[in-house]
Structure formats: structure tokens, C-alpha cells
Design a protein that fits this description.
mainly alpha; globular
């Protein structure tokens, strides 16, 4: 997604900004990096589809779901970046 909109939205609204990475990117392989980009641009939260076995999921396109192990990595990395970025705001 074009994350440049995130800081603009944060300036113009009181609402928290949550980025839906799974739908915006459409491929699980890109979700980790795009999650960090969303945090770097100031997103307050991330919406990420997960499934223990994405190929057997019955929701949206299974190609966009990450596994629980990958989600744990994303959360760990996002927390590190969030803590780092909060020093500058």
C-alpha cells in the first residue's frame, strides 16, 4: 500500500489508523516488510490475516494469510520498530 497517506490521515483525524496489510498487499510473502513500512509511517495498528495452514483456510485468498509463526516474527519486529520510532515522536 501507499503508506504516505498514513501521516496525512493522522494529522486530519482523531481516529486510530489501522492498515490492512493482507488485503492491500495480497501476498503473504510481502506482509512482513509492508508491516514494518506501515509502522514506520506511523500506523497505530496492523490487520493481518493468519491461518495455521493457509492453503486450507476458507476465507479470502489463501496466498495472503501468514502462519502463526510468521505473525510472531512480524509482531516482534514491529515492536522493535515501534519502540525505536517512539523516541522521535
Amino acid at each position: 500500500p501507499d503508506e504516505s497517506i498514513t501521516p496525512i490521515l493522522k494529522e486530519r483525524t482523531w481516529a486510530t489508523i489501522v492498515v490492512d496489510l493482507s488485503h492491500a498487499v495480497g501476498r503473504a510473502i510481502h506482509v512482513p516488510e509492508c508491516s514494518l513500512a506501515a509502522i514506520a509511517y506511523g500506523a497505530d495498528g496492523l490487520n493481518i490475516e493468519i491461518h495455521i495452514n493457509p492453503q486450507k483456510g476458507f476465507g479470502d485468498d489463501p496466498a495472503q494469510s501468514v502462519t502463526p509463526d510468521k505473525l510472531a516474527e512480524i509482531i516482534k519486529d514491529a515492536r522493535h520498530l515501534w519502540n525505536f520510532a517512539s523516541k522521535f515522536s
